[in-house]
Amino acid sequence: LLVTKGDTAAARTAYRELLQRDPAWPAALSAFAWFLFDQGYQNLFHGTLAAALADAQEAHTLATRWHEAAPADAQARRLLSSTHTRCNELREKLLAANPGSAQAVRDVSVSLEKLGDFLAQRAQPGDAEKALGHYTRSLELREKLLAANPGSAEAVRDVSISLNKLGDF
Predict the structure, then answer these.
(1) Residues 8-42: pLDDT tens digits?
(2) CA distance 87 to 156
(3) Which of 26, 75, 123, 128 is the most exposed place for a label (fewest CB within 10 A)?
């Protein structure tokens, strides 16, 4: 009702109160996650990229909780897929806005690997090709970061992790 009235701040509070009382309630997890998914979209165009990413990350956390509680539920899988994709899109936008940021590169790389992991686990037609593309792009980003910082132990470790992910896949 609060969302319908346009009172998004009160709706956010009400959703959080519901989930404090019952953190595993599927209907509340779903409704709040979709609400945050939509709010992230609104923030992307009418707010800030940081606020959009925060909403997308919180939606993803809720979607993950719901999916873990009901892995066979098609709606839970759909929501989790949507939030994975949205988080990655927003991280890509942050990287495009800050191409010299090592943190933005790492964030996109990790996001791509998580998206690849999800697709590999979901295993629907076409998912393997998409997962391979995400793992490959993650490795490319990390290799560029290593080339720019050849003495960085963190960059070496990150490339190693990407190679292991790709090899395991």
Answers:
(1) 999 999 999 999 999 999 999 999 999 999 998 88
(2) 25
(3) 123
Q: Which residues of 66-85 are buried (b: 16+ CB within 10 A; e: fewer)?
A: bbeebeeeeebbebbbbbbe
Q: Are 156 and 136 in contact (CB under 8 A)?
A: no
The answer to whether the CB of 56 falls within 8 A of the CB of 42 is no
Residue 42 DSSP code: H
* Dist CA 169 CA 119 (whole Å): 11
Amino acid at 98: N
Block residue for tokens 């295993």: 123
CA 162 to chain centre: 18
pLDDT at 49: 87
Look at residue 144 in the predicted model and tell me its pLDDT: 95
Q: Nearest Cα to 81, choosing from 48, 96, 55, 59?
A: 59
d(CA 36, CA 165) in angstroms, rounded, equals: 30
Give the tokens for residue 6: 């346009």
Q: Which amino acid is present at 72?
A: A
CA distance 68 to 79: 12
pLDDT digits (tens, 9 = 90+) for 71-111: 889 999 899 999 988 889 999 999 999 998 999 999 999 99
